[in-house]
Design a protein that fits this description.
Layout: E1 3-5, H1 7-10, H2 20-28, E2 33-36, H3 37-49, H4 54-70, E3 72-74, H5 78-93, H6 100-111, E4 115-117, E5 132-133
Parallel strand pairs: 1-2, 1-4, 2-3, 4-5
Helix pairs in contact: 3-4, 5-6
Length: 136
């Protein structure tokens, strides 16, 4: 395990015109990729909100037959919760309260010693000592 993928990275291959650099990085780092329970929730929730359609079927197939067999989904556990609480308190004290789910994702990456890969690195820049990469 080396990289924790955010929702926007995992969903990139489903786009009509996926970013070639992201696709190449996904292939290059196959076997070193994981994600987090809150990301899995975002992916599943987004899919379940869609009406029954070919698009929804395609997404469900991708999640069940590509993502699930190829990467571990890490939990939001007590270590992640403790780190998240410290960072949330620190950021709130300086008037920069982060979105709760972003904090969960960041904490899972941090306590597992992983690089968080996201297109939205600005959402995570305020967290202390969090390694970030943007593959776009």
């Amino acid at each position: 395990m080396r990289y924790l993928l955010d929702t926007n990275i995992i969903s990139e291959p489903l786009k009509p015109d996926p970013n070639a650099r992201v696709i190449a990085k996904l292939s290059e780092h196959r076997g070193a990729l994981v994600s987090a329970a809150p990301v899995w929730h975002e992916l599943r929730y987004g899919c379940r909100r869609l009406p029954k359609s070919r698009k929804r079927d395609k997404i469900e197939h991708y999640l069940n037959h590509v993502v699930m067999p190829s990467m571990v989904i890490l939990p939001y556990d007590e270590k992640a919760a403790a780190w998240h609480a410290r960072e949330r308190a620190r950021l709130t004290s300086i008037g920069r309260t982060p979105p709760y789910v972003d904090g969960q994702i960041a904490s899972i990456a941090k306590v597992n010693g992983l690089v968080l890969v996201s297109r939205n690195t600005k959402d995570y820049k305020l967290f202390s000592d969090l390694e970030l990469e943007n593959w776009h």
